Amino acid sequence: MQRFFVSPDSIKGGLLTVHSAELAHQFRRVLRLSPGDEFVVLDNTGAEFRCSLVDMGKERVEAKVVEQTECATESACELTLYQAMPKKAALFELILQKGTELGVTTFVPLMTERSERERLPRADRLERIIREAAEQSERGVLPKLLEPVNFSDLPFGPELLVLHSRGELPYLGELLGERSGGEARGHLGLVVGPEGGLTEAEVDHARKTGSPAVTLGPRILRTETAAISAASIALLRP
User: What is the pLDDT of residue 109?
Assistant: First the structure.
């Protein structure tokens, strides 16, 4: 069944009213829904509503709420991904899409010494990518996309893990398993460097301020591969 995020204000008294030309076009021209057809909307608080279409215009959709339930697809681990900006915008968009599907809670673009891109793609484009990935993967809450931060301004500490590919370092999965007994719970931050990796000075600074450095294994991964792999390890545990 099709799923769509809507404003909580659009659901009142058992009725759904959405003023959106984009949604109305999708219902009429893409999905070709008719009165009586059912779909699911989410209010971005964890609640989901099965609705039956009543009427629609060019910029309006009206439906009645048939059933309200709580979404059970959100992870017990709240993961913040601090992602160094890749050289190509498409790679950052891929990380947003796959990270959303996996269950990342918050994305924070990161500026490091070796970052080669300083500007984000258009915010509305990035938000659309996140929303569509969240709808497709049946998320109950949209991930947040925050403003970029500099590496030196990160909230260093034991719950912020820094991915690094050099030296004898603990494997991310083993460290998380030791901390939580194998369960994916609590708050966690992951720092993923750019194509050239984090500098030794950056990794040393993180360690000295309480953030462990961890590895994903003996091979050198692309930044988008590292981000998706690390999120999978952190979130796809029992």
Answer: 96
Residue 222 sits in a domain whose CATH number is: 3.40.1280.10
- Look at residue 229 and give its three-state secondary structure: helix
41 lies in which domain range?
A: 3-70
Of the three residues 17, 35, 70, the one that is the final residue of a domain is 70
Cα 86-118-222 angle, rounded to 5 deg? 10
CA separation for the pair 155, 14 (Å, rounded)? 43
Q: Which residues on neighbouring strands pair with residue 47, listed in sequence order?
A: 70
Band (pLDDT 50/70/90 cuts) for residue 167 is confident
pLDDT average, residue stretch 110-125: 87
DSSP 140: S
Q: How many domains does the chain have?
A: 2
Instruction: Write down the residue that tokens 């891929």 correspond to.
Output: 94
Q: Is there a single domain that holds both residue 130 and residue 33?
A: no
**CA dihedral over 89, 94, 95, 97, signed as positive or negative:** positive
Please tell me the distance from the alpha carbon of residue 109 to that of residue 149, in angstroms, as a whole number.
6
Structural contact between residues 48 and 69, judged by C-beta atoms closer than 8 angstroms: yes
d(CA 83, CA 110): 5
